[in-house]
């Protein structure tokens, strides 16, 4: 049994128009084969207007070069897109996104990973395929390491930017974990402030503290006003705990300096009476 590499199979494949609902997609997919990989990097099919194919080029110089290839383009379209009756081409100069052909991407991969990939005979067994895959992965990792790639300190995945400590998913995970810890401390010990919480949460910045603080205050206030609209507290009375932390965090005062007038001023009469009762 012999195996064909996925990259080689993809390089030989070009989309046919019969399988495409949009003719322009079929032409775009075969564009490198129609005009060549170099020209395809500086031009692309833009639109089909009637019997005219509009081609976007990077500059007037590439427009001039492609104009000499008009007959070749029309003949190739008859092969790659037989259902489209394109009789002439028109050019427009604009910004062409950089792109590389499958062959160019394959060349880059071989130069950075396994240079002997194309020289090896086809694998004969599944075990040989797996062994080659492991070798290719190892070669790719070595090439990245020699190019300055660094492993993420948490998951070990190679990172192109050597200045980053962790990869993006791990960094986001750390940030979410840090924010949850800050939110918990704001509820349990709102009097600590930034300095006190930063001493307990590693890597906390003042900006992150302010962001979490605003979110927590907003969420707490929504819970309190919902209870006020309903005219009743939850069976576990959690609104009382939230109100206590809310008043301390919102006022910025030490708990010993908070008097009933401060609480009533921040919560409002109706909410204050609902939580603490009119007698207090």
Task: Give your account of this protein's structure.
The chain is mainly alpha-helical. The chain folds into three domains: 6-93, GMP Synthetase, Chain A, domain 3 (2-Layer Sandwich), CATH 3.30.300; 113-159, no CATH class; 171-276, no CATH class. The chain is 56% helix and 8% strand. It contains 14 helices and five strands. It has helices at 6-12, 23-29, 31-35, 37-40, 60-67, 70-80, 102-112, 126-146, 168-188, 193-198, 206-230, 238-251, 260-267, 269-276, and strands at residues 43-49, 52-57, 88-93, 150-151, 158-159. The strands form two sheets. A three-stranded mixed sheet has the order 1-2-3. Helix 12 (238-251) crosses helix 13 and helix 13 (260-267) packs across helix 14 (269-276). The longest helix is centred in the last third of the chain and has 25 residues, at 206-230. The radius of gyration is 33 Å and the shape is elongated.
How many structural domains in the coordinates? 3
Strand order of the largest sheet: 1-2-3
How many helices? The count is 14
- How far apart are the first and last residues' alpha carbons, in Å? 86 Å
What are the secondary-structure elements, in order, as H or E?
A: HHHHEEHHEHHEEHHHHHH
Q: What's the rounded overall pLDDT mean? A: 79
Radius of gyration: 33 Å
Gross geometry:
elongated
